[in-house]
Amino acid sequence: MFVSGKQPRSGRSSGAAHVIAVGNEKGGSGKSTTAMHLAVALLKSGYSVATVDLDGRQLSLTRYIENRRRWARASRISLPVPDHFHVPPARKETITDAESEEFRALTDGLAAVEQTHEFVVIDTPGSDTFLSRLAHRIADTLVTPMNDSFIDFDVLGRVDPVSFEVLEMSQYALSVRDARRERRQTDNQILDWIVVRNRMSNITSRNEQKVASCLRNLSMQLGFRIADGISERVIFREFFPIGLTALDDFEEHVLGSRPTLSHLAARQEIRQLLAALRLPIDEVGRKRAEARQRYAQSIDQPIAMPDIFAN
Ligand SMILES: Nc1ncnc2c1ncn2[C@@H]1O[C@H](COP(=O)(O)OP(=O)(O)OP(=O)(O)O)[C@@H](O)[C@H]1O
Ligand SMILES: [Mg+2]
């Protein structure tokens, strides 16, 4: 539990960067892959992007970015790379001390980038950790990739095996609901939550149709939006060791192999996802960001943060 004290609102200073957290307590749902793709999509659209890896055990996003730098050097190509930092898990005598250290590491890291970057993309671990909960509370946009199956759906809601009605919300959904409520109370901001089905198969089975239908029901109960899905594609797994994404140039000397139709289709899916996020890169989004900034600037005194991590 984090002890309340004099902290900036939501643990952040009044920065201008729009924060996108990629989260799902279910492991292997595609968070790191999605985080990297969103970061590169924004870079390729001309925005300045910082990335944060809060999965200090696996460091998948950190490795992905390291691989990108290495591949660019080895192939003598120029690839846009986000400014990146990771927050290692703190080793302290008490949980409170460890959480305080992690809190400071994340907020210091964010303070260093939020005035100079337009977007911050945060990758979170596939488990309920202090840092993950913090990321969900500071985000403006939450993207939840979800494998297209009821095992993955189960972290959002429990489904009746006969009627396929959503019986109740699961732990992760409840914690996002709490994070949104607290965000609303602390600085009157709304966390926009988008769920994206990942690793979808080309042929839609009855089971997947049921997943889609249950997701629609749950989205109304929980107030998340559903983005068009991302297909299961071998290329997503091939990208990681060379640090590339579906947004990079598909020339053979960049890819290291011949591009395929799958590359083009994957790029289209990621672009659709980016559009579905409705980020402050169009007029409506910009107005929303300006209002957020004006509000933040009107606060000159940090306030005591409520016990936002109390159970
Ligand atoms: N659309 C996709 N098609 C094929 N493979 C995919 C797709 N998305 C992700 N993968 C693969 O699935 C695996 C898990 O993806 P990733 O590491 O992004 O998930 P994660 O949610 O970050 O996992 P963790 O919870 O362990 O951090 C990786 O091997 C990745 O390459
Ligand atoms: Mg990951």
Describe the structure.
The chain has 311 residues and is an alpha/beta fold. It has one domain (22-281): Rossmann fold, CATH 3.40.50. The protein has 11 helices and 9 strands. The protein has helices spanning 31-44, 60-75, 95-113, 130-138, 150-153, 171-187, 206-222, 234-242, 252-255, 261-277, 283-297, and strands at 18-22, 49-53, 83-86, 119-123, 141-147, 157-159, 166-169, 192-198, 225-227. The longest helix is centred in the middle third of the chain and has 19 residues, at 95-113. It is globular, with a radius of gyration of 19 Å. Residues 1-14 and 298-311 have low confidence and may be disordered. The protein binds adenosine-5'-triphosphate (ATP) and magnesium ion (MG). Magnesium ion (MG) binds next to helix 1. The site of magnesium ion has 6 residues, from helix 1.
